């Protein structure tokens, strides 16, 4: 026979005091075996029982019988006032309530602490050239860009839903006012309630950026062991956090070009060639090198979908006065391969 939590709490005092029948004790034992959570609850209850001897006294106490005894004393003692009468009754009823409340508080605190100490972390990585989409335990949707990884708990048991990002990700956060959602991106903290936003934070880059689609985002970073607040962002803004001087600069942007990668699209709108090269390098997992510094200032406008590296480079040649050379990857002694290298240079006249 399966029992629920209410039945367990009802039978528990008798189990601990040895007053249950064999059948009732077996019901408790079977309930303990049903899940690890049940066993944890039982063990914490046992600790509370041992720590609070008054609880045993409470469960054995017959308040009605004690009340009758007080009534008989009152009838024989004219000197007892009504106030004393009320005080005595209150004492009888209040003691068990206080002890039981203490027991419940200790149990709940202990269970919460157990959950927090046994948090299981998980890391999901997205392969090069791939976009990985998944849901977190609270219903928050995550898109993970090529070569990125996200670390998060399998269950959010604390008062803060915190994840750690390396790379680029788009979040659609499930709203929960009691549990804010925070993305840690190196030194930058992005805290939200229910919001859609894009984050870029690669380990080999000296900046992180946030693009807010909707909702509210608060940015902060640790500086000299104190939290430095940068204030809220508005939808349609892009904020860039500079690691070196721990400052943030923001601008109004068209957000679609920053989140189009979720659907496999790469959109460039008046972007400098240096930024184009950086994004293409990540997307195709190659090392793109600009040979002529002048090329860095070229402005580029294009949209790609499902094109391979060679096709993209040929389109670059058409729209800008550049040329390229591809150096294939090489086998290393440890069995791994180097990245392909792509050299960009000015087109010869």
Structural summary, described in words:
- Strands 1, 2, 3, 4, 5, 6, 7, 8, 9, 10, 11, 12 and 13 form a 13-stranded mixed β-sheet that branches. This protein has a three-stranded mixed β-sheet with strand order 15-18-17, covered by helices on one side.
- The protein is built from nine helices and 18 strands.
- It is α+β, with helices and mostly antiparallel strands and 349 residues long.
- The protein has helices spanning 5-17, 22-33, 36-51, 53-60, 63-76, 82-117, 256-259, 273-284, 309-319, and strands at 121-125, 132-135, 141-144, 149-153, 161-172, 181-185, 188-192, 196-201, 207-214, 217-223, 226-233, 237-242, 247-252, 265-272, 287-290, 299-305, 322-327, 341-346.
- Mean pLDDT is 80; it is low at 54-83 and 88-97.
- Helix 3 (36-51) packs across helix 6 (82-117).
- A hairpin with a 5-residue loop joins strand 8 (196-201) and strand 9.
In total, the number of strands is 18
Query: In terms of structural class, how would the helical and strand content be classed?
Result: alpha+beta
**Approximate strand percentage:** 25-35%
Distance N terminus to C terminus?
88 Å
Could you report the average pLDDT, rounded to the nearest whole number?
80
H-E string: HHHHHHEEEEEEEEEEEEEHEHEEHEE
CA radius of gyration is 32 Å
Biggest sheet overview:
13 strands, mixed
Task: Give the overall silhouette.
Answer: elongated
Count of DSSP-assigned helices = 9
**What share of the residues lie within helices?**
25-40%
Uncertain residue segments: 54-83, 88-97
């Amino acid at each position: 026979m399966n029992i629920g939590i209410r039945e367990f709490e009802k039978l528990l005092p008798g189990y601990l005091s040895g007053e249950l029948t064999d059948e009732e004790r077996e019901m408790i034992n079977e309930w303990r075996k049903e899940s690890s959570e049940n066993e944890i609850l039982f063990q914490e209850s046992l600790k509370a029982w041992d720590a609070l001897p008054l609880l045993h006294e409470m469960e054995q106490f017959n308040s009605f019988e004690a009340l009758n005894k007080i009534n008989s004393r009152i009838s024989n003692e004219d000197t007892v006032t009504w106030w004393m009468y009320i005080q005595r009754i209150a004492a009888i009823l209040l003691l068990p309530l206080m002890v039981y409340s203490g027991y419940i508080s200790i149990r709940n605190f202990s269970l919460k602490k157990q959950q927090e100490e046994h948090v299981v972390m998980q890391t999901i990585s997205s392969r090069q050239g791939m976009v990985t989409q998944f849901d977190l335990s609270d219903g928050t949707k995550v898109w993970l860009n090529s070569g990125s990884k996200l670390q998060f708990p399998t269950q959010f048991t604390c008062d803060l839903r915190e994840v750690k990002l390396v790379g680029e990700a788009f979040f659609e956060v499930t709203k929960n006012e009691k549990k804010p959602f925070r993305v840690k991106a190196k030194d930058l903290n992005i805290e939200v309630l229910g919001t859609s936003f894009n984050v870029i934070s690669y380990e080999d880059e000296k900046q992180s950026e946030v693009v807010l689609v909707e909702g509210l985002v608060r940015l902060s970073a640790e500086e000299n062991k104190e939290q430095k607040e940068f204030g809220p962002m508005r939808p349609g803004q892009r904020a860039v956090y500079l690691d070196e001087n721990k400052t943030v600069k923001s601008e109004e942007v068209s957000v679609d070009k920053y989140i189009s990668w979720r659907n496999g699209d790469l959109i460039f709108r008046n972007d400098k060639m240096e930024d184009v090269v950086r994004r293409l390098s990540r997307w195709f997992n190659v090392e793109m090198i600009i040979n002529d510094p002048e090329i860095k200032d070229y402005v580029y406008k294009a949209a790609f979908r499902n094109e391979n590296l060679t096709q993209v480079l040929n389109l670059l040649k058409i729209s800008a006065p550049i040329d390229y050379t591809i150096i294939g990857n090489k086998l290393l002694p440890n069995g791994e391969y180097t990245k392909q290298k792509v050299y960009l240079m000015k087109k010869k006249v």
